[in-house]
Each structure stands twice: as C-alpha cells, then as structure tokens.
Design goal:
Structural class: mainly alpha
Distance between the termini: 62 Å
Strand content: under 5%
Number of helices: 10
Helix content: over 70%
Number of domains: 2
C-alpha cells in the first residue's frame, strides 16, 4: 500500500509564520506601534526579512486580519449552526466576536491599523464577504420577493457592519462584554428588512434587548 507524501512547508513559509507570530506577541504585550526592527528582533530574523516577505508593516497586519477571518470560517464550518439564514448569520456573528475576544489586545492592535492602505490587503474584504455569504447560504427564511437581492447585497453590508462594530470596540467605546450583543443586533437590523414575517419577531426581540441593556 502506498502512502501519500506531504510536502514540508517551505523555508519562506516557515519564516513568514515566525514573523506573523512575532507580530502577534508584540501586539499582545501592548505594543501596537512596534517598529520593523523590533519585529525582526522578536522573530529572530534579519532586519530586511519582514520587508522582503511583506513589504510594509501594514501588510503584516492585513495578513493577521485575514488569519482571523480564516479562523472564523473554520469554526463556522466546524460548528455548522442549524436553522434558517438569519439564525446562521447571528451564529456566525457570535463566532466571529468570540474569535476577536480570544486575544483582545492583539486584535485591537490589528484593527487599529486596518485603515491604512496597503498594496496587499491579503483579501480581507473578500474573505469577510465570503463568511457572511456562507451563513446566508440558500436564503432559507428570507422573503421570496427579496431573497436574491439579500444574497447579493447582505454579505457586503454585513462585512461593513461587523467591521464598524469592531472599530468602536477597538476605540474602547464598546466593551468586551457587549461586543457580541452589539454585533448581533447590528446584523439583526440588516436582516430585518429581508426576512419573512414570522422571523421578524425574534430579530425585533434581539434589538429590544439591546435598547434595554
């Protein structure tokens, strides 16, 4: 019986991970303004290596952001939340918020840098939209009249909305404790215009809890 061989990671791939892991550590110790020289020292590589691999610090932070969204994708696939489109979107929001809360200091540092332009955004925008598109899937529970429109526009709008909630969280205006509720309520507000009538009540209840909190 033949055994399939797996190729070991390349040296460049391994070094790339070392640099990203070093950036994680620096961000996690409250150093969002670390220099590329400090990063190289933390990673144990030459000063030129982070530049050669990424080009600029902001590209490193975009790569870390992409890793977060890939983790969200993996957990959503693993948990496979049941229910209609709205239920799956709200579950995906909860999963995404939990990923960000696992390392708040590091993740706030990543978010704080995302407003800066980069020649390589690591596909963050597309990755984020894909997560919400997967949650919406076939559009079960959406109004038949607007289901196609919802599946076209909601992934982008949910991506924008979640990024907006994270921006306020990064600035300290949304607490760790309220992040999930705020994000889920924001998604509920977007979904409200597209779900069938019998699904509206639970979304309105969620929004009501936010008002009462």
């Amino acid at each position: 019986m033949s055994i399939a061989k797996t190729n070991p990671p390349s040296a460049a791939s391994t070094t790339r991970e070392r640099v990203l892991n070093a950036a994680e550590r620096l961000l996690g110790t409250g150093q969002p303004e670390f220099s590329m020289r400090e990063l190289a020292a933390e990673a144990g590589v030459s000063f030129a290596t982070p530049f050669n691999l990424f080009g600029a610090k902001v590209a490193i932070l975009h790569a870390l952001s992409a890793q977060r969204i890939e983790t969200m994708h993996a957990r959503f696939a693993s948990e496979a939340p049941p229910g209609d489109a709205a239920s799956r979107v709200l579950a995906a929001v909860g999963i995404a918020a939990n990923v960000m809360l696992e390392n708040p200091a590091s993740n706030r540092g990543v978010m704080a840098a995302l407003g800066a332009p980069s020649g390589d955004s690591a596909g963050v925008w597309a990755l984020s939209q894909a997560l919400w598109a997967e949650a919406l899937r076939g559009g079960e529970g959406l109004s038949p009249r607007t289901s196609a429109l919802a599946r076209d526009v909601l992934p982008g709008q949910l991506a924008l909305a979640f990024r907006g909630v994270l921006s306020f969280w990064t600035a300290g205006e949304i607490t760790n404790q309220s992040l999930s509720m705020r994000a889920r309520a924001t998604a509920a507000a977007l979904l409200l215009g597209f779900v069938e009538e019998h699904s509206r009540e639970r979304l309105e209840t969620l929004l009501g809890k936010l008002i009462d909190s």
